[in-house]
Write a structure and sequence with these properties.
By secondary structure, the protein is an all-alpha fold. It has 2 domains: 112 residues, Alpha Horseshoe (Serine Threonine Protein Phosphatase 5, Tetratricopeptide repeat); 100 residues, Serine Threonine Protein Phosphatase 5, Tetratricopeptide repeat. Helix 9 packs antiparallel against helix 10. The termini are far apart.
């Protein structure tokens, strides 16, 4: 059977992933998998399973994909599919905050990517490893991973490169290298806006809000934080909504508008910590920036 249908569906799915249209990507990958199950070779079925799992994991319902991904990894029949399986498992554990397991599978994915020699795969995996290290607050080590990812990322991968720039920019802010951090974050934002990658813009906007808080540019912190909150709600990124509320509350508090600050903290408590009624008052007395890791 002509496999052009399979490759076309996968290609459209990859484009949807790049622009953050995860539900559309999942549908396309599911159609590709159905074609592979009916017409394809075993390696195409495994590839279809890996692709569908990637979208499901990003959408938050990928736990059921793990047994199939582990089976592909253990069977070790195809380096490309092994790499994808390991990467997806690692991503699942990152999103569920099991960072030790995430790093274990990320290193397997990197090894398989090096075997195949795909620079884009190695770049994306180094970026992913950086994310896991950053979530664990290993800032210097995460920065090195991001720098390596940037050096490996080939031309023509603008959105993925922008994501790495944003991650490295946040690290530079944490390292008090503010000028460099701003340069990286704004370059990331410009690229993501150009490609209308709203889902991926959220992280960079939150990082910019944090950066302006760190340098006492409260007007800009409020501007980027409000936009981050709006896009996080639109793209249904719950953790990002939470982070935006933290930062907007802190921005309002530092600006002297305690009423607005308390309203943000009250919404935060109501939506995310319903049993902790003391939280709004507590958050009014502490430095939020020292309490949270925006990339954890």
């Amino acid at each position: 059977m002509n496999s052009d249908i399979f490759e076309d569906l996968r290609s459209y799915g990859e484009e949807a992933i790049r622009t953050g249209q995860l539900a559309a990507a999942e549908d396309l990958y599911d159609r590709a998998l159905r074609w592979a199950l009916e017409n394809g070779e075993p390696w195409q079925i495994d590839l279809g399973l890996c692709n569908r799992a990637a979208a499901a994991i990003e959408l938050g319902h990928g736990e059921g994909e793990l047994p199939r991904l582990r089976e592909i990894l253990l069977r070790n029949a195809n380096p490309q599919n092994c790499r994808l399986a390991a990467y997806n498992i690692s991503r699942y554990y990152e999103l569920t905050k099991n960072y030790k397991k995430s790093l274990f599978y990320a290193r397997i994915a990197l090894e398989r990517g090096e075997t195949v020699g795909r620079r884009d795969w190695m770049a994306s995996t180094h970026n992913h490893i950086g994310n896991v290290l950053l979530a664990e607050s290993f800032i210097a080590e995460a920065s090195q991973s991001y720098e390596l990812a940037l050096s490996l990322m080939p031309d023509g991968q603008a959105v993925w490169r922008a994501n790495i720039l944003g991650n490295l920019g946040y690290c530079r802010i944490l390292q008090h290298r503010h000028s460099e951090g701003y340069t990286l974050l704004y370059e990331s934002l410009r690229t993501l806006r150009r490609f209308r990658a709203e889902r991926y813009m959220v992280s960079t906007l939150i990082d910019l809000c944090f950066a302006h808080l760190e340098t006492s540019r409260l007007h800009y912190a409020e501007r980027w934080g409000a936009l981050a909150l709006e896009l996080a709600e639109r793209t249904q990124q719950r953790d990002s909504v939470k982070n935006a509320l933290y930062l907007l509350g802190e921005t309002a508090h530092l600006s002297g508008d305690d009423e607005v600050a308390r309203s943000y903290f009250t919404r935060l408590q109501h939506d995310f910590f319903p049993d902790e009624v003391y939280l709004p008052g507590f958050l009014m007395t502490v430095d939020i920036r020292k309490l949270i890791n925006l990339h954890a």
